[in-house]
Automatic annotation (TrEMBL), chains A, B:
PROSITE patterns: PEP_ENZYMES_2, PEP_ENZYMES_PHOS_SITE. Residues 143-223 form the PEP-utilising enzyme mobile domain. Belongs to the PEP-utilizing enzyme family. This is Pyruvate, phosphate dikinase. Pfam families: PEP-utilizers (PF00391), PEP-utilizers_C (PF02896), PPDK_N (PF01326). The lineage of its organism: Bacteria, Bacillati, Bacillota, Clostridia, Eubacteriales. It comes from the Bacteria. It comes from Pelotomaculum thermopropionicum.
Amino acid sequence: EDVVAGIRTPQPIAALQRDMPEIYGQFTGVCNLLEQHYRDMQDVEFTVERGKLWILQTRTGKRTAQAAIKIAVDMYNEGLLAKEEALLKVEPGHLDQLLHRRIDPAAELNVVAKGLPASPGASSGMVVFDADVAEKLGQEGKSVILVRTETTPDDIHGIVAAQGVLTSRGGMTSHAAVVARGMGKPCVCGCESIRIDYEHNQFYTEDLVIKQGDIISIDGAAGSVILGAVPMLDPVLSPEFQELLVWADQVRTLGVRANADTPDDAAKAREFGAAGIGLTRTEHMFMAQDRLPIVQEMILASGREERQAALNRLLPMQQGDFYGILKAMDGFPVTIRLLDPPLHEFLPNAEDLAVEITRLRLTGGDKEEISRKEELLRKVRALSEFNPMLGHRGCRLGITFPEVYGMQARAVFQAAARLVEEGFNPVPEVEIPLVIDVKELEFLREEVTNAAEEVMKDTGVKFHYTVGTMIEVPRAALLADEVAAQADFFSFGTNDLTQTVLGFSRDDAEGKFLQDYLDKKILADNPFMVLDQKGVGSLMKTAVELGRKTKPGLLIGICGEHGGEPSSIEFCHGLGLDFVSCSPFRVPIARLAAAQAGIKV
Amino acid sequence: EDVVAGIRTPQPIAALQRDMPEIYGQFTGVCNLLEQHYRDMQDVEFTVERGKLWILQTRTGKRTAQAAIKIAVDMYNEGLLAKEEALLKVEPGHLDQLLHRRIDPAAELNVVAKGLPASPGASSGMVVFDADVAEKLGQEGKSVILVRTETTPDDIHGIVAAQGVLTSRGGMTSHAAVVARGMGKPCVCGCESIRIDYEHNQFYTEDLVIKQGDIISIDGAAGSVILGAVPMLDPVLSPEFQELLVWADQVRTLGVRANADTPDDAAKAREFGAAGIGLTRTEHMFMAQDRLPIVQEMILASGREERQAALNRLLPMQQGDFYGILKAMDGFPVTIRLLDPPLHEFLPNAEDLAVEITRLRLTGGDKEEISRKEELLRKVRALSEFNPMLGHRGCRLGITFPEVYGMQARAVFQAAARLVEEGFNPVPEVEIPLVIDVKELEFLREEVTNAAEEVMKDTGVKFHYTVGTMIEVPRAALLADEVAAQADFFSFGTNDLTQTVLGFSRDDAEGKFLQDYLDKKILADNPFMVLDQKGVGSLMKTAVELGRKTKPGLLIGICGEHGGEPSSIEFCHGLGLDFVSCSPFRVPIARLAAAQAGIKV
């Protein structure tokens, strides 16, 4: 008690060995016994009174992720644990600490301010003070750091678009901190030594003025703000970590793939042990600066012919995208989802346009420019939607504009044909999003199959491909027996499925009322981070049962964000899914969680 | 054949009786036999050749709705049919013809143009040329007639807000005609004698100029356009129609209620035989011109106190609303749904505000006005949502602002207490919208129960009430066993349930891609008009089974638009629902369809 009360200072354990070798021998004996009994590292309290050893308390020791891995591997090597037991000793969620980018320790850093280390990882980008600007620059492919006194739910879209967040106010549970951790983005918060001047779009440190557009770096694990870009190191796995993951792979039956939209991400995913790509989003490819104007031409085309002309220019670019990804994943399956988001996401904002037109009119602007912008505004308005999430997107685009999906399918198959010719083994899986009825799939499957046959005929090359569907709308799950008849695979899009099953728009829920739901304990977890097993999960179960009733061996995976969350992975294992797919950096977490799920059952 | 070819003109049947009484006797004998055999009115082709009667063909006769009713009632009275058989002779959907408002035949009409009779019914209103303007005026409670050359999907919100639609181009299957018929609104289309001048906001008839804001009337059954307002007659039911409906009520087990938001609608519903109100939407009450400013104060309040002050002013108004409706439905249940739509629907449009601010700035507008509008824009932006349908609405408002639901519950109960004191028998059913989890219902039920107890204590009056929930989000249906524990009743909101199960925003689907789905036969019907039995229906079945597993006698109804559609009513009967609820004018259709569903089973 004196120790706990701080009255006496304990001595290092080595002092015991030196001063009381006999007691030390007794003590190590007891410790070994305890570790063998509890099969885990123990945190043992003891005292020595009048030459006699008293064991006061023992409990499983707390540890960092890195230590947990080392202890588990050591205990296996010492024969204390079986592999399966060692695997259960590491909490998959904690691995997150080891899987973020960090600043090269050899780098010279110009640290200009210090705040709270609110969310691990490091990143560099242009300083931006406004969420809308961050979103806009993000869409243009720029790296930005969002800098705010505090963030509010209205800034969510800016945080999504930014590489990191810096705030001058608020603690470890402030809005910015909680949101950034949820998204896995670096965040430094409560950085009180900086002063933000929104009016002039700049912030002040003790002796510097940093303007919008200047480059800074933040280290969310250290809480530091650094001037300029700095060299970063991608996370590498320690030998013990690698070993543990090899064991996990031996044990698990659930496959692990990654979500990746670029050859770089695909390569990173391979490095982390992903056995394929479970989701390639093709819309990000359309947002690139050199393509957006052509995409806009396609969208604003006044007829099929004009649209086809724009598509013809996009075709070689898309082919290049798919070539790179399929090559990086040589021999492994790559699920390529055809265009999914509503088209107006590619167009300018109506409000901005309306304001600009008003300004031009009142300041005697160029008549022709005004009428061109008015025409654009008219089209933007015609394409705008009340609820874009439930609007003209996904396979509905493919139904109304089959030529768009046709172009994408052709690009996939041309890339595959070229790779086969070069001696590679591409395994493309073409995925149709937002299906609600087997007839959509039937219609679009034919479009895809025709493209494949054309490319085979044109190139004289045979390649393998499959066509499957996302299950992300309740109706597809409820009618999965019918849908399966036209699908080579199912992939659960649990982000969208959560949105429709709960009637929660993620942006609006996280921005407006979800916190209330968690505070009032109406929901135990954010359903976009931890799968809602009772609601969403029960529909998934229905879909698996119905789908495999029609096709017993149907390949089924999950590619929503939940695919990287341990409790959700355990649930997916229980459902009998074939694979989970998650962001490349979460692949090791998923490999371990999948192994644990198999062991626990 | 000569007759069919038009070479000979047939003679009236009376001529046969006069000229060949014997043949006539034979003929009526055969006809009676045929009618008895087919148990329906027959359309008999015959000829007389050389004094001999030849029956050429017989088939069931085509008829108008009014004739169908008369034939069915006559055949019962003549002993040819049992009541059940007579009820099956009338197509419920056809009754629509008899259930619309029409122009008083005694009125002097100044018909200024004629077009196609595209959708039955008549209405008067201000001429408006723009869907946005129509929507705005509609929200202010104005009656408007939308006048366009043609309508497009972009005009949908204007058609929703208008009392009728007039177009100068397009036929009976043009967009305006199809949409108006779907919504049960009068429409005159293809009115080629008018010329619309959008630039000057007016249209020309042969000799008149009619400006925006002028009042016109249209008769969608006659295709006429009339200058000024004209006296209208509400539909009345013929004695045979009344009799048929009495039989229907004797046969059917499924209850029929109406959706009504005003005492007038409630009275109309009673007149048409509704046994209660299945849905009173309280948001329409908030849109009235005298209330909107107070509602906006409530929404924009900077804290609970300020909000409570606005709510205190709304309380007596809401009490008056509920008093009127409960009184009109004396002795019958009235389901009152607490506030449902997203709050920003009550606020001005962000784009309009942004444009106005730009204009004020560039034209040296009043500084104070600019900053007031900027503050308003900031709040409007903060409340705006990406997908309002899936956003901060329904019981989510009650969770974050319990005082809003508290005020509404108090208003219901104060009205009930006053009616009890006056000797009436109010039966309020308080309904919580958009529930996804039993815990929401538990939390809000307590709020409502507290209000009831307070009112009983304050007034010393006891009254009856129940608290139940909408089932309109998939999760509520999937977890209906849990939800039922806190619910006195379920009511299926099949409009929202269709939106979430199919992932279809109604406005966007009908405006953008649904037509393609129908054309390509991916869907057989518009799922917002005819219930999607396979998808939405299967979830309803689950909810009924689970709900009644927890509470065997649970009262369950449907209040979506499907509650007035015959095939959907038949489906609801099969599910074992207690009632359907539909618009007052469709109550007779529902009564007949419910009876037929009972007979067919």
